[in-house]
Amino acid sequence: MKTDWKFLEKAMRQSRKISLRGQFADDPARARKFSMKAAGWFLDYSKNLVNVRTMTNLFKLAESAGVKTEIARMFAGEKINVTENRAVLHTALRNRDPKAQIFVDGKDVMPDVRAVLAAMGDFSDRVRNGAWRGATGKRIKYIVNIGIGGSDLGPVMANIALTPYSKRSLKCFFVSNVDSTHIAETLRSVKAAETLFIVASKTFTTQETMSNAHAAKDWLVKKLGADAVARHFVAVSTAKDEVAKFGIDTANMFGFWDWVGGRYSLPSAIGLSLMLAIGKRNFGRLLDGYFAMDEHFRTAPLERNMPVILALLGILYSNGYGAESYCVLPYDQYLSRFPAYLQQMDMESNGKCVDKSGNPVIFRTGPIEWGEPGTNGQHSFYQLIHQGTHMIPCDFIGCCQTHNPVGDLHDKLMANLFAQTEALAFGKTADECRAEGVPENLVPFKTFPGNKPTNTLLCRKLTPETLGALIALYEHKVFVQGVIFDVFSYDQWGVQLGKVLAKGVLQDLTAETVELKHDASTNQLIARYRKAVGRKA
Ligand code: F6P
Description:
Blueprint: H1 6-15, H2 20-26, H3 30-33, E1 35-38, E2 41-44, H4 52-64, H5 67-75, H6 90-93, E3 103-104, E4 107-108, H7 110-129, E5 142-146, H8 153-161, E6 171-175, H9 180-189, E7 195-200, H10 207-224, H11 229-232, E8 233-237, H12 240-246, E9 253-255, H13 272-299, H14 306-320, E10 325-331, H15 338-350, E11 368-370, H16 382-387, E12 394-401, H17 409-426, H18 430-435, H19 443-446, E13 454-461, H20 464-485, H21 496-510, H22 520-532
Parallel strand pairs: 5-6, 5-7, 7-8, 8-9, 10-11, 10-12, 12-13
Antiparallel strand pairs: 1-2, 2-13, 3-4
The chain binds 6-O-phosphono-beta-D-fructofuranose.
């Protein structure tokens, strides 16, 4: 189905007239009308530039794109990742219905999903209780996950987010960058005899991950000998042959499948480092949270569907108002890496410029996503959101209860969250400034335009369940936007060119002698580098 963009134009006709001050003054029920609950999260979207008619047209936009049908196709395991000829089934990874069957190419994938989860659980129990030991008989105290992109960002984000649930005696490290500093500094912090390396890579060919994995293996072999590798290295991958080639016993490999996209892989075996940290029970609770949001998304009507609502509001601003980006502002230090995690999820999925027929799109596709935890951001970039010339819709995320009650700090944190959404929505008029006695020459500087859209997401407490549901909420938001944009959200061809060119450049950087055949700028940079590191020009 082709998206009928006239519904966005209609939505915009209403939206442009909206003053949030006016709307709230006229309608005492507005906050309630534009709020909803799902899977442990409360969403207040009343501080958006919408009224009932705007939302009705936005829902028609979603309907015209066939969102309902596409949701059903994804959950059913249809091969909606057409350019890679793959199903998109991260939802199967957290399907907690013991009787569920999901078929890909005529095979039910659920028995394999459950088997890997059970193997992960068994392994993490053994590491955590000391049954699995290093080659010298010592208990494992350090976990080093080596991976990048989807094989890193999810585990890092969730490890930080679920710190209160983690076994504090196990220290987790994450090495992703091919910058040798990353692995070198990490190896300085761990002891070989007490370290377990998890090489996490869907393909097991990614340059950064394999380079770091080889470096870690060389280091371990030097310290403990080659026989120690089997007790200190496990793999998470879809590529058994590559794992064996690297020298990891495939009995110590945790598999997943080509229908799990890297950026959607946290609930697969890619989450092993997280399971080691928080234990299999808490990992199961995370999956429960994902599943609760999945079920909401799959079954709720568009008008009461949280991911759909977030997706439509996003499109209103990106394509109606021309907003280039949106900001995610978690008022919870445990969610400090959540914006970075969302960057890959959203921007690698919908950062596309051709539609499903291969034709250039004539509207904005995936937005730029960015953000920082509150209140830190308030003392940095919020100035631009309040008084700058860009429209930056924001999602504020807060948890009513803290894991770490210290005096009144949590009340202060949440007061800041609520106050920011109030200030952004209602601003401060020139007259209000004058009434406060602001001198006339300062009035333009102290005026806040307001009418800046925000969503507020609140949960009772950040738990494995609420984290899982929050991740699924954004995954499905991205899915809905991809359907409306009519782009393929589950491939990422845009990352290939740079990878291929880097191989050629690497040869030119390291060869004994070279005849540089790049453009003048690249040639100059390579020549400069060669000279600086003492190689012939
Ligand atoms: O370069 C992009 C990418 O392919 C991501 O999509 C993926 O998450 C990451 O690289 C890592 O890939 P792998 O898990 O195969 O090492």
